Amino acid sequence: MGNKIKTILISQPRPATEKSPYFDLADKHKLKIDFRSFIHVEGVEGQEFRQERISLADFRNVIFTSRVAVDHYFRMARELRYDVPDDTKYFCISESTAFYLQKYIVYRKRKIFYGNLRFPELLPIIKKYKKDTFLLPCADILKDSIPVALDEAGINYSKAVMYNTVCSDLSDLEDVKYDMLVFFSPSGIESLYKNFPGFTQNGTLISVFGPTTRKAAEEKGLRIDVAAPNPKAPSMTMAIENHILNKS
Q1: What is 7-38+170-247's CATH topology?
Q2: Phi and psi for 163 in degrees, rounded to 5?
Q3: What's the confidence (pLDDT) of residue 2?
Q4: Strand 111-114 and strand 32-35: pairing?
Q5: Whole-angstrom Cα distance, residue 48 to residue 62?
Q6: Sheet harboring 7-10: ordered strands across?
Q7: Which pLDDT tens digit goes with each residue over 144-200?
Q8: What is the largest CA-CA distance in the chain?
Q9: Is 70:42 a contact under the CB 8 Å cutoff?
Q10: What's the N-to-C CA distance of the chain in angstroms?
Q11: Distance CA 147, CA 145 (A)
């Protein structure tokens, strides 16, 4: 049985660098891989944010779980005419998110801490400042694991919804068919059905990353063909490649 997969749609933006493993996968197996965000974020306006009754001035410790959160925190500060004090401490999920702060502040003069991509690795650093209050700029959809971890650690924090996750318009894809669709979040699955209410899977292969994405897909009655991470494949590209090799 030969490799029947020729075309794949990744429901995320195109990687910023050509070094992405997706391009290696495409070259190796002669695949056409396209990228398209099924969801995007839209900023909450300052006037709407005020209704949350959160004053940015009350928080000198800010937790950033993504670059998007960084952008919207400083956007909101600008809209509300709040000058972020120089002594504000920043707790970032990763080194790259921390370095991204240079877009808005003089990096070397600030108190910046970061973990190694996973929130549990950042938590011990946050715990050192347990007596302080923290602000968590986030989207309307937030992984439950982050508030749960903060609650369990007894951290005094406030969630500040500064941007919303919105389904993108995919109407131009209506007549385009792919052998495989790849999803990374329940929102991506929701976007698929919002754009194409009559979607039927038939022979289309569905790949999902993470248990919550899998659950959302299964609730829609989709057949899961590739799931990552798994013991043999920590990444989506490895999981797709293993599937191709097993079918060839």
Answers
A1: Rossmann fold (3.40.50)
A2: -155, 155
A3: 44
A4: unpaired
A5: 20
A6: 32-35, 7-10, 180-183, 205-209, 226-228
A7: 889 999 999 999 999 999 999 999 999 999 888 999 999 999 999 999 999 999 999
A8: 63
A9: no
A10: 5
A11: 6
Residue 1 has pLDDT above 90, yes or no: no
Consecutive H or E run containing 206: strand 205-209
Classify domain 43-165 at the CATH topology level.
Rossmann fold (3.40.50)
Beta strand pairing status for 32-35 and 7-10?
A: parallel
Helix (H, G, I), strand (E, B) or coil at 164: strand
pTM for this one? 0.78
Domain boundaries, the chain: 7-38+170-247, 43-165
Taking Cα atoms as reference points, which of 80, 40, 15 lies closest to residue 167?
40
The β-bridge partners of 134 are 157
Number of residues that make up the chain: 248
Q: How far apart are alpha carbons 154 and 177 in whole angstroms?
A: 49
Contact 224, 230 (CB under 8 A): no
Q: Phi/psi at 171 (nearest 5 deg)?
A: -60, -25
